[in-house]
Amino acid sequence: MHLTLPESLYLLCYTVDKGKFELTNLQGRGQLLRAAALTQLTLDGLLGAEGGKVVRLPGGPPGEPFLAEVWGDIPEPCSRTRSR
Hints:
- The chain has 3 helices and 4 strands; from the N terminus they run αββαββα.
- It has helices spanning 5-12, 26-43, 65-73; strands spanning 14-15, 20-21, 47-50, 53-56.
- The protein has a two-stranded antiparallel sheet with strand order 1-2.
- β1 and β2 (20-21) form a beta hairpin.
């Protein structure tokens, strides 16, 4: 089974000794998983940069639901041209 980077990090957040996910640092865990998703999307060639900002590259969303949700939050590149 191939896991995405966010899926792998999610499993690493599990506390085996206690048999559950700790509620401490819940916000930090969410930020970690989102950063992992952005990294995965970049490695998969679905994100790029335009004018110093992250943008979606042409193509459809990834098949994994969490990655697709994060991908959908990223704006598309500006299609309008700048006038001089």
